[in-house]
Amino acid sequence: MAMASLRREGRRFAAPLISSQPITAIRSSLIAEEQAPLGIRSISTQVVRNRMKSVKNIQKITKAMKMVAASKLRAIQTRAENSRGLWQPFTALLGDAPSVDVKKNVIVTISSDKGLCGGINSTSVKISKAMHKLTAGPEKETKYVILGEKAKAQLIRDSKKDIELSITELQKNPLNYTQVSVLADDILKNVEYDALRIIFNKFHSVVSFLPTMSTVLSPEVVEREAESGGKLGDLDSYEIEGGETKGEILQNLAEFQFSCVLFNAVLENACSEQGARMSAMDSSSRNAGEMLDRLTLTYNRTRQASITTELIEIISGASALEG
Amino acid sequence: MIYLSFNKIIIIIIIILCKIFYSIRRRNRQKRVENNIQHPLSPADAPPLPISESADADAAAASSTTITTMFRQASRLLARSINQQPKMMARAFSTDVPATPTVDSTFVESWKKVIPNMEPPKTPLTFMQPRPSTPSTIPSKLTVNFVLPYASELSSKEVDMVIVPATTGQMGVLPGHVPTIAELKPGVLSVHEGNDVTKYFLSSGFAFIHANSVADIIAIEAVPIDQIDQSLVQKGLAEFTQKLSTATTDLEKAEAQIGVDVHSALNSALTG
């Protein structure tokens, strides 16, 4: 309080008292905090100190966020790895046909709801847009189904009319199969599709996330591909147990495949999100630390310069008095 | 008769089974938890369930999510206490990319033509362990992969025979079985290896038997038979039979019917 009022006084008295150096010297030591506009020789460290405080706070916050992301990653990584066996039988049976040529494509983009997770959402959106371009053509239509806020925000800007369905707040409750199954059911009911392409970031390691695309074909397309030979050619050699017709079984199979693949995809994406957030927050706190170091140097230099200036003034004033 | 999609049927079955299996799992977890750590888990006071105005399945799914979240959380806490830091480090680099990744070349080429600047996304083929090819003679053992959404119960286990509960009845699978796609109903899966027989009660799912004597069984819930509580099964059966008789809408009738089927299957599993 006292300092503040002195500061204010100092500014008012600054101009007329420049000539009397000792008084200026004393006053400058009292008002060393404030940056005076005209000629008072006090160098301020307040600005630098404010910046240092805010950068230190940022460092603390990002370090805490990194710890939180690390613990969440540990929890969800086991589940994602356990769910990896779920889609393999389907790929073993039906093969994988990303280059299948169909009329109605539906691109299911999986992204996160929260930000600060590096570039994974942008990658997913870029690949979705590229797939849209790839599968475009005469008499073909491609629609989006979006899971997660971040992809919605990016895709709504230029592809608003192509978005069929968008789902957010997926991770409010911990992910489990029932919830994803309900979601898959909703999507399948509301969207007409020949091929569903699920785009997500597969968790390869804590620092590497591979954008991946899984394809689920509708039963009609499966039959068509099986008849025409190729990868699905041996599907006819499989006997069907249960159900009345092959078509019914294929329908159930397609639905089941979609919900299993979606479950794995959602878990992997959540894992990637936490990993990306961890590394983003880690680099952010490291940057904050470096910035803090540089600011500390500047602060010390400024402080020492102001002390030196004071000393010079005092000494030169004293020597002038001595004569 | 109402048409229920496959996923919806599975969801209803899981919700019904969860109520039985949850109490079993809670008992097991508590036994193990008491042995390891003192943990204040009280699943009895469930959080208030969010009742939505949408379809029954959604509200039921929400309740099942809270139930399943609770035992998932229990299992997670348990897993965390067991999996200490060294194991986590070992898992930091996942090893499920095989040494020679197979890539779909047509897709990559068509991608590069349209979008030359970006790398094409990976496809599931890249991450798959290649399957053995069909041998000329019938192998002696059947390789079984039994997967659930939250674990791989058996992966590439060599056994003599499995009996799966297909919708058309119990189906035995031996090495050299003709390739089959079988839809499963809730029932007992028994795995025979030598003289050991392990029995699991499955919710529905699918079973694929390939020409190379590899059997993939995909189910949503599986519990070893000895952990099922007889009294709960009887109670559930009585409850659902009563619901079936008092059901009004098609959806309720279908749900009650599914409940009755599941519980009678459980009953026969315990007795048979």
Automatic annotation (TrEMBL), chain A:
Q: Which organism is it from?
A: Hevea brasiliensis (Para rubber tree)
InterPro entries, A to Z: ATP_synth_F1_ATPase_gsu (IPR035968), ATP_synth_F1_gsu (IPR000131), ATP_synth_F1_gsu_CS (IPR023632)
Cellular location(s)? Membrane
Annotated membrane topology: Peripheral membrane protein
Q: Provide the family line.
A: Belongs to the ATPase gamma chain family.
According to its UniProt record, where is this protein mainly located?
membrane
CDD domains xref list: F1-ATPase_gamma (cd12151)
Record's protein name: ATP synthase subunit gamma
Query: What PROSITE patterns does this protein map onto?
Result: ATPASE_GAMMA
Q: Which UniProt keywords apply?
A: ATP synthesis, CF(1), Hydrogen ion transport, Ion transport, Membrane, Transport
Q: How does it assemble?
A: F-type ATPases have 2 components, CF(1) - the catalytic core - and CF(0) - the membrane proton channel. CF(1) and CF(0) have multiple subunits.
From TrEMBL, chain B:
Q: Which UniProt keywords apply?
A: Ion transport, Membrane, Transmembrane, Transmembrane helix, Transport
Q: Which InterPro entries match?
A: ATP_synth_F1_dsu/esu (IPR001469), ATP_synth_F1_dsu/esu_N (IPR020546), ATPsynth_dsu/esu_N (IPR036771)
Which residue ranges run through the membrane? 6-22
> What sections of the sequence does the record tag as coiled-coil?
none
Q: Where is this region: Disordered?
A: 35-55
**Cell location:** Membrane
- Occurrences of domain ATP synthase F1 complex delta/epsilon subunit N-terminal (ranges): 142-214
NCBIfam families in the record: ATP_synt_epsi
By sequence similarity, the record places it as follows: Belongs to the ATPase epsilon chain family.
Q: This protein is called what?
A: ATP synthase F1 complex delta/epsilon subunit N-terminal domain-containing protein
Classification lineage: Eukaryota, Viridiplantae, Streptophyta, Embryophyta, Tracheophyta
